[in-house]
Amino acid sequence: MNVSDKSVDVVVVGLGAFGSSIAWRLAARGISVFGAEQHTISNSFGSSHGLTRNFRSISQNHTLLYPLALLSRELWFELEGNSSNTLLTQTNALIMGQKDKGLIASALAVVAKYGINPRVLEAADIRRQYPIFGNITDEDIAIVDELGGMLFPEKCVTAAANAATRHGADLQENVEVFGHSLDGSGLVVQTSNGDIRANQIVYATGAWTAELLPRLKLKSLRLFINRAVR
Fold this sequence. Notes:
Helix content: 25-40%
Largest sheet: 6 strands, mixed
Number of helices: 6
Strand content: 25-35%
Distance between the termini: 52 Å
Structural class: alpha/beta
Strand order of the largest sheet: 9-2-1-12-11-10
Number of strands: 12
């Protein structure tokens, strides 16, 4: 569908987990949204494909992420309520490591800041309850994140895109975005289906961001993953 002369509040580029969720939440607030995905919505080319992703409420990355995780959990269940699929299954999650070091220290900082009282398992308890972790050291402990679980990312992307569409967003597949420019009237976004005007643009493009926005001088990170089987 040609989009020439179309004008919206926000253009979202890339409709994976981030882009589809952004489109959903913006459209739910009454903001006009155009979303462009260069492949199909839910595909195997980005970082949102596969069967599952971990969900944790006790983040080891930053103490301020805990309230956001709780809000995220509420929104996943809200989205699930309007979907025919299960999106988030609560299973508990284990955070394991050496006492007062690394991930454990970070998790304990979250626990202390927000007055959480999780179960803490010593090494013997871990081995007994979770035999697959029988090779841990005696110095290891585990914090049980009782709100933790697993997400089903491809179903999540589809559900968020569908929710955005129900709220009036125009989401289009197989539309490539080449970039954007500014003129006297605002943003002009160049796509394979024509130019579109917008007040703002959000790039949720993952590994394609360096190519789309070369002025940021981003470097792609190439990972080689080896599986160790014991």
